[in-house]
Write a structure and sequence with these properties.
There is one protein chain. Helices cover 21% and strands 41% of the residues. By secondary structure, it is of the alpha+beta class. The protein is globular, with a radius of gyration of 27 Å.
């Protein structure tokens, strides 16, 4: 009887010891007591970004070239960005503002440049630009297109160019900032 009792205790104790070992040894969650929500969660996309800011890189989905002069980036002919929907935009909608520059070299090759955009597969009205210099693409965004926490915006230019002289990049416009604002 004593041997059976010892064997029974071993049978019961070994799984308990193993479970305690695995519970403490495989622990992957940290104790976040005292931390803010921002410190404990993955970074959320911003509603507005300066494209040269290194923190904006995860939001520049495709069609963006490296930062130049610590202030701007060239886009490709097609480019995309992910932005956080502003607070209240699911009810009131938002305003999209894309600030960029059309350099002289673009107009030495083309008489005009047309920029179009889409969100969630819905086309936004295109804009035609006929002069070099600072430019702004602004559109009113209906609430249904900014009803999710973040949205992808795809842009397309009707023209782009390759500089040549060893530079084979597909260049569109010089981007500075892009954002969604509450209406």
């Amino acid at each position: 009887m004593a041997i059976e009792g010892i064997a029974l205790r071993r049978i019961l104790i070994i799984p308990l010891l193993l479970s305690a070992t695995f519970a403490t040894g495989c622990k992957t969650q940290r104790d976040f007591t005292g931390y803010t929500e921002e410190e404990t969660s993955a970074p959320r996309p911003a509603a507005g970004i300066q494209v040269a800011d290194p923190r904006a890189v995860p939001q520049l989905v495709s069609g963006w070239w490296d930062v130049e002069d610590n202030a701007w980036r060239w886009t490709a002919r097609r480019f995309a960005v992910v932005l956080r929907a502003p607070i209240g935009s699911a009810r009131r909608g938002a305003i999209l503002r894309f600030r960029f520059t059309l350099p002289d070299v673009v107009f030495s090759r083309f008489k005009q440049v047309i920029l179009s955009a889409s969100m969630q597969g819905k086309l936004l009205a295109p804009e035609t630009y006929r002069r070099p210099g600072a430019a702004l693409y602004t559109r009113q965004i209906p609430p249904d297109l900014v009803s999710k926490p973040s949205v992808r915006i795809d842009f397309e230019l009707d023209h782009s160019f390759t500089p040549g002289h060893g530079d084979s990049r597909d260049l569109g416009v010089i981007a500075r900032s892009i954002g969604l604002e509450s209406r």
